[in-house]
Batch of 2 targets.
Target 1
Amino acid sequence: MKMASFHSIHGSGTTHQARPITPSELRSEFSHHDSTVARINNGTFGCCPSSIISAQQRHQPLFLRQPDYYYFNSLKPSILESRRIIQSLINADYVDEVSIVDGVTTAAAIVLQHYTWSFFSSAFKPGDAAIILNHSYSAVKKAVQAYISRAGGHVIEVPIPFPVKSDDEIILEFRNSLQVAKANGLKIILAVIDHITSMPSVIIPVKELVKMCRDEGVDRIFVDGAQAIGNVEIDVKEIGADYYSSNLHKWLFCPPASAFLYCKMSDEFSDLHHLVISHEYGNGLAMESGWVGTRDYSAQLVLPEVMEFVSRFDGGIEGIMRRNHKKVVEMAEMLSEAWETELGAPPDMCSSMVMVGMPACLGIKSDEDAMKLRTHLRERFGIEVYNRVEDYQRLRDAVNKLVKDGFTCSLLPN
């Protein structure tokens, strides 16, 4: 399955040939970035081109100008258009399976809230368990602990090795954890699986793990794809999970904060509700998410302009993903050679982000050391369309200077 193009999404039947973006236009699109900083960690907060910021700013006054008209006539159709674009990008069967929320953390909480209520309604019993990866994103991991543990459930962490050499290592550890849980008499009601782990950054074999969960009788599966859309291909039907969520503001050029939550049609579909209950309660999660009170929804409405933006690049979003992956591997190999270290995962397990080992002489001996050094340098990095080779050469040279000056983490203040 290929990601939908701008033409097929809008389905006008006319040929739309976007004008290719020029190098000077590309620089202008990101001229609001701080030029004194080599911005090489796009995966943290993403990026938003100037043309998309302008599109958002065109939406914002419409509500202020005439809020009643905007609410009753414009907002719902605009959100529906964005949902249809997402539906096509992820190959969902129905637009009602797609809700727009403000982030994956919110999406995870919506799903976890449902499971908390299931404990109280006796659908599940104390002692049932959720399974997650040890490298799951901290906010989602804490949400699982908060919702499942407080309801009386267990949380099982799968010990994914790092550095990792192959998908088989991940699959083996996941299978072992499922088997240990079964041997201990635990019923696993929910699996939370990252599509791309954040730290360390590794593409997880989600299709294989989802199938394993199905074979082992896991009740439901949520895939945290926070870093995925615009970074790797997403086909929710091929993946086969019950829930899938990804941030639109990380690798798909939307303003913060915007994300989608896909919920596969099922018997319990109508039991899912947004965390904020408002006027649309009971009309389906997509409608509930489309109005959670008076706030700025403009970040959710610029998907048409985003698709126009990416269509100006050779190959569209697929071309961007291919070039980003190729370039980030090149930069990672340049850095690992300069520092005489290794990559944290093989290139085929990297997306547009990669992990590179730092020189051992820097004395990074613990998570605390790594976090202190992280305030000065970042060891995970990614590549987006605005990055240049010089950005990574600056990182290489900065680390080499630390090594030359005899710096170690022990010199950093507590």
Note: The two ends are 50 Å apart (CA to CA).
Target 2
Amino acid sequence: MTTAARPTFDPARGKGSQAPTRIYSSRDLASHTKLKFRQTGQTTQDELNRVDLKAQLKKAEQDHYEKVNKVVKLGAGLSNSFKDDNDDDQKQESAAATETSTETPLERKRRLLQEAERLDKDDSDDSDASKDSDESDSDSDSDDEDDTAELLRELEKIKRERAEEKERQERIQREEEEKAREAQVAAGNPLLDMPEASAASSGPKDFSVKRRWDEDVIFKNQARGMDDKPKKRFINDTLRSDFHRKFMNKYVQ
């Protein structure tokens, strides 16, 4: 009869007759036996009661409106400055107009004549300077054109010579490649390299297969079969396996 399902002796006796133990596991001990409360600076209830939330809201609104009013005032100041500049320009124009209106017709005529003479003098100076510069420029331009034409002719001559030289070299290279290709084709086919096909050949060609130097030696293939070991095979029969046959041949016969 099996005893696998029967309890051992100590559990069967129970704990009434055993001495009480004072050894406990750390997992059996009580943990978190005290509640944690908020400390000072952690928004306790007293701190929240002392804070005036309504005053903070009003202060934030006042700061916002002050910022908006400052921006509006800054824009108004800029527009006023532009307006002041326009007023100054208008004042200067009005002052010039009053000065022109106060001068007499004789003075006005004299002023206009002086301005006309000054403008004519400036135009004559400019025309003289432009004529001198045009003459010098025309001389220099003619010389430059002659030099440029000469340089262009030399450049065309050099380009033409280089093109001719390049074409000549390419023609020579093509001829050499064609000759090499023909020679390769003639040498590649032994039937075309016969004396009848080529007059420059010295004699008939030998088409026999060349023999190796070790074909007629006495000791040839002496190591053949030395490394031919039988491959291991698996036979699912102990009486016909290779090991059994080798064992029987070695120890029984």
Note: The radius of gyration is 62 Å.
